[in-house]
Amino acid sequence: MNLPENLKYSCDHEWLKIDGDVAYVGITSYATDQLGDVVFLDVTTEGETMQRSKPFGTVEAVKTVSDLFMPVSGEILEFNKALEDAPDLLNSDPYGEGWIIKIKMIDESEMKDLLDANGYRTIIGE
Hints:
- By secondary structure, the chain is an alpha+beta fold.
- The chain has a single domain (8-107), classed as CATH 2.40.50.100.
- It contains four helices and nine strands, in the order βββαβββββααβα.
- It has helices at 29-35, 82-85, 89-92, 117-123, and strands spanning 8-9, 14-19, 22-27, 38-42, 49-50, 55-61, 65-69, 74-79, 101-105.
- The strands form two sheets. The protein has a six-stranded antiparallel sheet.
- Strand 6 (55-61) and strand 7 (65-69) form a beta hairpin.
- It is globular and about 35 Å long.
- The mean pLDDT is 95.
């Protein structure tokens, strides 16, 4: 399983990549493997401020529809518009072009509750 060491991970299978004062959020390759082929994303929370663990959208795959959860509290600055035409980027490049939202974090102390790659491997049984 591909788990970049430079990311933080939530127990809900989201990842977080810090870039200055913003962070990119996506779902892990483990999550996409469990979901199957992603066919649609519904993220209508752009511009909203969301609390950690609250759903910011849904991902629809061949097998199921699943909520997407905020790994930390923040303002949703941008939704990755490339996913509108190519939701399969979540399957093919979950840690790169398949990022879902860009956020401005409210409380960086919430980062302490996220997992590193080794911690995430433990919860998925790898």
